[in-house]
Amino acid sequence: MTTxxxxxxxxxxxxxxxxHLLNAGYAGRExxxxxAHIQELAELGVPGPSVTPALYPVSPYLAQQxxxxxxxxxxxxxEAEWALVISDAGTLLTVACDHTDRELEVHGVAWSKNASPxxxxxxxxxxxxxxxxxxxxxxxxxVGAGEVPDTLIQDxxxxxxxxxxxxxxxxxxxGLDKPGTVxxxxxxxxxxxxxxxxxxxxxxxxxxxxxxxxSLGYGVRQMAEPIG
Length: 228
Description:
By secondary structure, this protein is α+β, with helices and mostly antiparallel strands. 16% of the residues lie in helices and 39% in strands. It has one domain: Fumarylacetoacetate hydrolase, domain 2 (Alpha-Beta Complex), CATH 3.90.850. Pfam families: DUF2848 (PF11010).
């Protein structure tokens, strides 16, 4: 079982034993734009979902707080997201990066989500403390060819995505609105012309009301070539 630990703004530490991990997909609020994105992916050979938004169960041990992600080849990349974490101390919101195998994605999105970890930040906010101004919170990601992620690749706000409360209702319908459930939000558009297949990733979620920022960063390490 994976145990995640989060530091809250008041210095409290909350530990969560992950029982269920779910990745939302095609989760933009403007579903017309989502459908256009599905068509773009179809042209690249990525199969579309049967319904939108989609929700993919992921192996719970893939929820990780790490500084390095090991991959099998050079066609993997992250996705800037928020994460909803239900704990005994209440519902938390943190920053996340869903690292995805793009070669496997053309065979099945659910498979690709289970090939690499969902990296979560080590600090979090209580959802109740930010619920009233979620749309003002920014979500950005940078990538780098070396150790330092220095090129902006995603720049949006939480207003682009379905809300945590939307997903809490879905979790309640499924009996999953209980401590140990982690839900990753789905991502925002990448900027054109930036190489997503990068050596390093950094994601930040910034709250202009409180002045606080949640961040994470990690390097991508390609494993040795297999024998056989």
